[in-house]
Each structure stands twice: as structure tokens, then as C-alpha cells.
Amino acid sequence: MQHWETMILFFFIAFVYASVGFGGGSSYLAVLALYGLPFKELRLIALICNIIVVTGGTVLFIRHNYVNWKKIIPLVMVSVPLAFLGASLKIEQQTFFILLGVSLVVAAGLMWSGSKSYLVKESLAIAAHPNYFRDGALGGSIGFLSGMLGIGGGIFLAPVLNLAKWDSPKRIAATASIFILVNSVAGIAGQLAQLPASINYMQIALLCLAVFIGGQLGSRMAVIKFNHWWFVA
User: 181, 151 in Cβ contact below 8 A?
Assistant: First the structure.
């Protein structure tokens, strides 16, 4: 693997995804898969990078009062244990890549649909009434799938919330950041028993540095100069 080339790619992925409240896990997986790394290592790296990127965004969203804990808690209460369960399942590498490919196609469709259905200014957005059963079921199903794939689940959650007009674009971005953060931690915990014996920690450290810088820059754009057209794109 070309370290500098991959670091540059990870920097730009982190910057772009952080600017809309995401961690970039799916794109990290796509890039790393090109290098033929074991899929268990791919998932670990993607989740660590997710945590680094969305932590900065989560802190900024909380500071700027874009987090509605009452609406977020039902999502994450169910998603966290199911993300752990999904990550702890033993799946074959071929099954993993099939699931990843299908899931990314579905996520792309959801994001495209969201861009067509929620083209309103943030100031005019009307938040839907809380539905705790629906939110728990949604968070749990996305959490379980995210745990298996090694992503945080924001690319699935945000478009669905967007379609449902769950809240304003910026609050949905804040929700996605927190959702990705807690599911990524749960995913790593679920993977611990399956980690490969040999891991290139220097490689992981370099990639973490790249996404930290990109994520910090992108997170500030998300909070200060958020563009909902990017969010639904």
C-alpha cells in the first residue's frame, strides 16, 4: 500500500464526509479493498477512522445546540447492542463484500431519493413528531447491518430521516454524527474476538492522522457553513 497516496485519499474522504455529518466508513472500505487487505482489518480501520472523524463533529454540534437527545436516544439505545451483535457474527469474506456492495447501492438510492423529496430551506423545515417505536426499529436494523459491514450507518440513517422530514438538515447531520460514533465503538467491541493476528499499526496511525486533519476541517464547515444540498447529494 502506498501510504502517502492513501493518506491523501483518506484526508479528502474525511473532509467531505465530515462536512455533512458523516464519518466516511463506506468509502474507507472501498479504498482499502483495492489493496487486498483482509476484510476484518478493513472493518477495524474504517471504524477507527469513523470515530476520529465524527467525534470532532459531534462535539461541535453539541456546542452549537444542534443535538436533540430526546429524539436521538431511541435510535441509539437499540442500535448499539445490535451493532455489537452484527460485528461479532462470523461471516465469510465473499459474503461481506456482497453485503457491502448491495448496501452501498441501496444507500445511493436512498440518498438520491432524499435529494428529490426534501429540497426545502432549513428555516422552513418542519420536524416530524417523535415516534419512538419507529425510531428504535430503524436504529436497530441499521445498527445491526452497520456492525456486520464495519461502518457507522450514517449513510443509511440520514437519508431515511431526511425522507421522513424527521428534523432540519443540520439536526439530522448532528444525529448522524452521534449515531455513527456510538455504533462504531460498538462495532469495534464486537470485532475484538475476530481481529487478525498481525495488524500494521503504523499504517493505521498514519491513516488516523489524515482523517483527523480532514475531519476537523470538514466538521467546522458542517457547523458553520452547512449546505443542505451537499447533505442530500
Answer: no
